[in-house]
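Notes from the 1:1 (GR / supervisor)

We went over the backlog. Supervisor wanted to see one worked example end to end before approving the batch request, so GR pasted a single chain during the call. The sequence is below; no edits were made to it. Supervisor asked that the structure be written out right there so they could see what the output format looks like.
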Amino acid sequence: MATTREQKQMEGVSPAANAADAEAYESTHVHAVYEAIAPHFSSTRHSPWPRVAAFLESQCFGAIGLDVGCGNGKYLDVNPNLHMLGSDRSSELVRLARHRGSGGGSSSNSSSSNAPTLKTASSPAAQKADAPENSEGGPSCTFSGTEVVVADGLALPYRLGAFDFVICIAVVHHLSTRERRVEAIGELLSRLRPPHAMAASSGPAVSTSTPSGDDAGVATGITPPTPGAQRNIKATGLVFVWALEQASSRRGWDEGSEQDTLVPWVMRAKGRPNETFQRYYHLYRKGELEEDIAAAGGVVEESGYERDNWWAVFSRPQL
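Structure output shown during the call:
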C-alpha cells in the first residue's frame, strides 16, 4: 500500500518536506523531462506570445534585458534594438537557442533578411559560467547581440541591478514550493536597475565573481520607442505562469482543482512508440502571482489573465 508521500507523488503534489526534497523532485519532474523532450518541445515553441513581444518592443533603444528560462531563445531576437542575455536550466534547450541563427533551431525570423548571424561570445565570464554544462568544449555561440548560458533560476550568474528589463515566461510555476517561487521572483527583481539609476550600465552584465504554456492573448498595443529615446527611469520585469482558472480550456482546471499537479507531455516520433513524460506544475490561483511578487519585495505595475495564464509586470520599490 502506498504511503502518504508516495500518494502525493502520484497525484503530482511535491513531497517537499525541505529544500533538498524540492530540488530532487524538480530534478525528476522538470529538469530531466525538458532535457529529454527539448527538440520536440522546441519545435512547438516558435511564435512569440503577443503580450511578451509587445513588452519587448516597448523597451528603449539599446536597453539591456535578461530572459530567464529562455528555452529555445524565441524571444531573444524579437526586438533587434535590444541587447538580450538568456539563460535556461536545460543544456539541451540552451544548445538549441545558440543555433537559432544558423538554421540549427526553430526561428520565426530565420527566413528574414534581418535574421541574426552567429558570432562567438566575447565574455570570458559567460563562457566560464557555462563551461560545466557545455559539451562542445569551445566558446559559446550566440546570435547578434545576445549571449545564452546554462544557469539555475535560483542562482543567476548576473550582476545585481544590471538590467533595464527582465522576462520569465512559463518558468516559475515549475518550482515546487512557495518559498522557491518567491525566491525565483526575488532573483529577477535583484537584477533590475534600481529606480534612481537612469544611465545605462557599462560593461558585461555577467558576474565575474560569485554566481549566485500555451499561446498568450492579444498584444497590448504599446508603441515601440524610437532610436535615441530617453531610457525609462523604472526598470520592469514580466512574468507568466499557468493559471488554475482554466474552465474554458480543454484541460478543464478550475477553482476547485488541485494546484500542484503533473501535466503529461506526449512525444511522438515517426517509427517509434509514443513516450509520455510528466512535468510538475503549480497552477496559480487568481491573485497569487501578485502576492508572490509582493512577498519577494516587488511592486506590481499591472497584471492580468491571458488564455490560461496569469501575467504581471513588476518593478523594484522606489528608494
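Supervisor's comment: The longest strand covers residues 272-282.
Batch request approved.
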